[in-house]
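can u pls check wat happens w/ GEK
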Amino acid sequence: MPILLKNASMQKDRIYSESLTDIANFRFDAQVADVFTDMIERSVPGYRSIITMIETLAGHYAQPGSTLYDLGCSLGGATLSMRRGITAPDCRIVAVDNSDAMITRCRKNIERDHHTVPVELICENIQNVQITDASVVVLNFTLQFIPQEDRRPLLEQICSGMRPGGVLILSEKVIFPDEHLNGLLSDIHHDFKRANGYSDMEISQKRSALENVLIPETIAAHRERLTGAGFTSCDVWFQCFNFMSMLAVK
Ligand code: GEK
């Protein structure tokens, strides 16, 4: 019995379903972009809930005349959610991703959507994007792909471009300092993937592909870095196994 409701038009992720002799580092290319929604929903516990709640958070935090950023927007899940949730007047959304394949498909999703808040799509490394006059910034499972030494400068740059009272929504895969608990939650995550139809081979090959690409950290490390980067308050608002989302308020 599948856990998640399926959209009939969604392409199924079978990328790691055949045995591979050489497992290359994971890339957000066209093959991934084509199956991305199915992939992330079957792989990230709580993803759909976080996307839904971003609508509520945008409704609460969007300030009149401000910009909302979706950094690492992929197909625009969080962008569309913010677009639905904004009630403040004269807002705009800037959505950024450095994968051409993602941006091309994201543009189509935005065009099909009937909400009216203007969306600017930018194909660029988020580290090169100037954040200005922001009331809401979303990093939904993106920071984990940024080189660790670049994470603090990126968060400082984001914080300095935000209005007072603005919020950063930071969602990440995390690790735990307690080795036993860390192993347990990682096993449970794999159970979740198995329950969503991934085979042991798919789980193991995807894990190898992500090993040097997705670098998770502890919740304490995130909290400390956010505070150091200039945010006045931050804490976890959502957690499911080894995936969590934090709110950081400027
Ligand atoms: C969602 N937020 O559906 N600059 C720009 N984009 C980047 C960079 C970078 N340096 N590094 C990675 N990306 C989305 C899901 S997926 C998370 C985010 C996942 C982009 C990358 O191309 C991909 O589209 C996205 O960040 C990460 O709410 O696959 O686990």
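Confidence is low (pLDDT under 50) at residues 1-6.
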